[in-house]
């Protein structure tokens, strides 16, 4: 099984490109904190290359900037290519199946991102409901069931 789940912050702004066939692809680097401290009491981080495709690539490029916190679910993909200097280079990327935006470094309420035009764009938080109100009050009449009605 090849499954990866990461939570981290973007180490740089994501870069979106379009392939020759018209498909969008966004590359970004995710800084993921290590769960332990070094001898100086500092936590290190791993910088992991991630790739998203199609609509997800568009959303990451549009709403995420350096410092945005995201959760990524995907798989590891390795590859290699010949560099211009004649050496063989090896790559390891996370291919994103699902990416959840968790917020930016300075955000307290909702998700705030900075676009390429250097102005802030705010996406409102999900509406919340009052839990003291019965959500099923207008659902219909009550149905009484006995243990004989249940199939198990």
What does this structure look like?
By secondary structure, this protein is mainly beta. It has a single domain (4-35, 43-123), classed as Nucleic acid-binding proteins (OB fold (Dihydrolipoamide Acetyltransferase, E2P)). Helix content is 7%, strand content 49%. It is built from 1 helix and 8 strands, in the order ββββαββββ. It has one helix at 54-63; strands at 4-10, 15-18, 24-37, 43-53, 69-82, 88-103, 111-114, 120-123. Strands 1-3-4-6-5 form a 5-stranded mixed beta barrel. The chain has a two-stranded antiparallel ribbon with strand order 7-8. A hairpin with a 5-residue loop joins β5 and β6. The model is unreliable at 107-126 (pLDDT under 50).
List the quaternary state of the chains: single chain
Q: Please, what is the average pLDDT?
A: 81
The first-level CATH class name: Mainly Beta
Give the terminus-to-terminus CA distance: 35 Å
Task: Give me the strand/helix succession.
Answer: EEEEHEEEE
The CATH architecture can be given as Beta Barrel
What's the name of the CATH homologous superfamily? Nucleic acid-binding proteins
Strands in their spatial order, largest beta sheet? 1-3-4-6-5
Helix proportion: under 10%
Structural class: mainly beta
Q: What's the gyration radius in Å?
A: 22 Å
CATH topology annotation: OB fold (Dihydrolipoamide Acetyltransferase, E2P)
Question: What is the percentage of strand-forming residues?
Answer: over 45%
**Number of helical segments with 4 or more residues:** 1
